[in-house]
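USER:
I wish I could look at a protein chain and see how it folds. I am handing you a single protein, as its sequence and its fold in token form. As I understand it, each token names a local backbone shape. I hope you can help me see how the letters and the tokens relate. The protein I mean follows directly.
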Amino acid sequence: MYLKSIEMQGFKSFADKTQVVFDKGVTAVVGPNGSGKSNITESLRWALGESSAKSLRGGKMPDVIFAGTEVRKALNYAEVAVTLDNSDGFIAGAGETIRVERHIYRNGDNDYLIDGRKVRLRDIHDLFMDTGLGRDSFSIISQGRVEAIFNAKPEERRAIFEEAAGVLKYKTRKKETESKLNQTQDNLDRLEDIIYELDGQVKPLEKQAATAKRYLELDEERRQTQLNLLVHDIEIGKSDLSQTQEDLAAVKEKLTSYYEERHRLETENQELKQKRHQISEQISSDQQTLVDVTRLISDFERQIDLYTMESQQRSEKKEETEARLSELEHLKEEAQAALDKVNQGQVELNAELDTIAQELTAIQKDLEQFSDDPDTLIERLREDYVGLMQEEAKISNSLTQVTHDMDSQTQALEAQAEEYKQAQADLLSAQEVASEAQKAYQAAQESLQNLLASYKEKAQTYQALDKDYQEAQKQMFDLMDYLKSKDARRQSLESIQKNHSNFYAGVKAVLQNAQSIQGIIGAVSEHLTFDTRYQTALEIAMGASGQNIIVEDEAAAKRSIDYLKRNRQGRATFLPLTTIKPRQLNGQFAQSLANAPGFIGMASDLVTYEDRLSNIFQNLLGVTAIFDTIDNANKAARAVRFQVRMVTLDGSEIRPGGAFAGGTNKQNNSLFIKPELDALTAEINQIKAQLSDSEAKVEALKVKRKALQKALEDLKVDGENARLQEQKLGLEHQQALSDVEKNQALVDSFKQDSQGSEGANLQDKAEQLKAELAQIASKREAINDRIEAIKEDKDALGQQKQVLLDKQSELQLKERDLQAELRFAKTESNRLQADLSELMQESDSLKALLNNQVDEDQTDRLPHLQAQHKEAVQRKDDLEQALVRAKIQVQDYEGQLEDLEERLAKAGNRNEDLIRQQTRLEERESQISQSLRKFATQLAEDYQMTLEAAKGQASPLDNVEQTRQNLQGLERSIKALGPVNVDAIAQFEEVKQRLDFLNGQKDDLLEAKSLLLNTINDMDDEVKSRFKATFEAIRESFKQTFTQMFGGGSADLILTSDNLLEAGVEISVQPPGKKIQSLNLMSGGEKALSALALLFAIIRVKTIPFVILDEVEAALDEANVKRFGDYLNRFDKSSQFIVVTHRKGTMSAADSIYGVTMQESGVSKIVSVKLKAVSYTHLTLPTILLV
């Protein structure tokens, strides 16, 4: 890997976009003081993740943005892009080219990109971690860093060696692991608290569950015994009922004949009475009908006279209606014509508006051609022209290089036929071996890649699953904590409620001894609930009445007062149900408040209580109104003349008479705890349900996680085996390829035409570069022509643009006028439509009226009335004759009734004994039936089964009395158990199951904790191993490098302690001819040369893609600078050094030189030159080209 280029814009003094391209070898950056040389190295450090503004010579990070000059404005952002060649795979998993970008804005915001993809700053740190290129790496040595290495404390100096050892990633992972360990320990502590609580619940519940199970066993035996007795009693009862019913049937049969005879006589008597009654009713009806018919005849005579007069009036009204209807038809025609004309005008206006809109769109398109200012276009073309000139200079340099390479190709090869043939044979043999080795190696690689892909896929799945598991576990623990806090609050409230500790001493004494006093119902505040939104208002509305005690009657109140007096327990107010009467507002006030703004309701309507306590709460709260705000309450109070008490939601109060009260109460009022307790109980039940679901989710994820973990471990073992096989085959393949390369090199050495082929390629490249130069010259000429043309047409373009703008304004004005006309036409159309609708409605109404008149006229009622009159007269005569006949028939029926009554009186003296027998048997039947119904009800309610089903489960009884005694014994055993909590069985199982689950979670956390501790220990061991090996290697390298650079002397590196995880690094040096001395007593040059020796020693041990040195040799004399330059040249040319320097000796060692100048004050520019075979001393100014 090596640094390909740095692109800067707006970074410090590099205001313009500047690109610096680097090659391998040594590159020198030179320039006067203050020209901006160090800004190049700082831009690289900044792009690679430097987050300290101080280390970049700034106060805050936005200081790196170009601050402006006397002639240039300050910029609002800066950006740096660093391009790295990664073709050798130095950073695994990255592409062949890595491009890292960083942008910063004046507000301090930063953007980070890797290969064009937005990332976090941490992603950049992770990418270069342990590569020697990180923000704290030793690959970039800025000004003063050399001396800082020696002035640093041993513990601070250790960071350089950790970077070289590549252990930073282990330290980062260790911090993450320690964080997970702390989190695991926290979860473990929380679990142990909960398990401790559950352990305390399990034992009592287990005992209660055992009692409940014994109770269920005894109860089941009792139920079976009782079922046997029930079935036996039902069977006996059914037998007795059957015999009684047979006896009753015989008595009823005897009575039936008596009742039939009596019924026949009574029926005959009733029929005669009914006939007599019917005739009497008929006589009364006919008499009434005769009166009605007489009255009807008179009505017919009056109607005949009235109808004659009305016929004349309807004829006159019909003529008026027809005249108005004709007038309305004429008006409708005129309105419809006007409406059609207005609608046609709207269509024409819309069409004209569409035409204008099209013309405006066309003009807008024409204007867009003139959007760019001619001066702006000329400036852009000039920038393109400068760009072409820069590209032309670059191509000219390339052409010169190609020409030089063509001239330098002079080598020729001699042919050796026999050796060439042998080399070809050896090459073919080696190629066959390499081919076989490659196949085997590729197969192993493919197998390994498949395993790695499978492992990676499963690892990602495991990470996602583990994340879900951790989140679910955290959610479960949070719910446990939340439930614990809520349950503690509930227990506190229940304790307050049980002990009545929130009441006055007198109230508390009565409530605690309510059972002995008798007749105590409870405190007012204990018998109501309400929405917590109204709590403040209701507390104020209730006031001290919440402490009042509700009692059954006056006697209970007297007993309570006597108790308080005897025991000197204080005072209390009592509200007997028998004396307290409800209070409510009169109708006028109630109506006024109901319509008032902000009225929420009467206080008594906002609370819930038992029906029997209605008088109490109506008395206390029935005349208090609740409002939302004090302003609305004040308005309502004025409306009722300040005669009603008002309370607002925030506790403000307006009392009858006009007094205001309000403010805050510092004391925590816990009198009304029942609403909170009810809400808290509901919330706890909901949390428990959520916790149950969360625990089930955690358990399910745990099972999946373990299965996936086992699969990952199996894959890891297979992968290790595959990796060993792949490495073995890879070595064999590399050896085979090495043999092929050796033989290929020998064959290539015999080829005679390679020189000519290469020369032809160079010739083609030279021709191509010349053609490119010609194209660039043509483009430059075209740009010049374009600039001249724009200058000439500048005035003409302005005139054309003005004509278009004038036309656009004219069309827009016309468009507004037409739109106004269109709006007026729409208004007129709506008005005409409304008028037309009214005319049509009136016309329809007149037509309907006219039709009704026609129908009435067409129906001539006079003949009909005359016929009815005649018919009524005839009916009167018939009724008079029928009345005479009916009176004669009534006298006949009365004689027959006298005879039947004599016969009934004689039959009524029989069968009195049969009636007494029937009564006795019916009572017996009723008693038996009632017992059977009782048994059936008990069977249905207690056993939920029918008699047939009960017979199937019941057992026959040998000794009924003994069975009844056994049942009594079972009931005594059940009673001896005392209070039984049947739910304890399920509660015990639930708590035990939850305890087992939490213990499983605890085991998992302990296992995770152990695994994390092992991981930390493994990482510590790896850090120790790597640090020790790297330190020893750097130590030996430093000894040699120091001797070489100083021309003698000795040096050593010493650890400050045996703890390889924390030991600092001391530097011990002895320049030639001097005794070992303190580092602080060394000269600046000796410190610098010693630090460089340490740096070079590290570079020889740790492979670093590139090294940037910023004036590190400033303190050296010429001789040592020469040594420094020579040592740079000792490194392989594939290495890359970028040196910022003023020293000629360093420049002479460079392969390329970049010059940084400030031709414009405050703005840095770059010039560069390649130094191949040319000596630095012969470098002249004209050879430096503009980049």
User: Anything to note?
Assistant: Residues 20 and 425 are 49 Å apart (CA to CA).
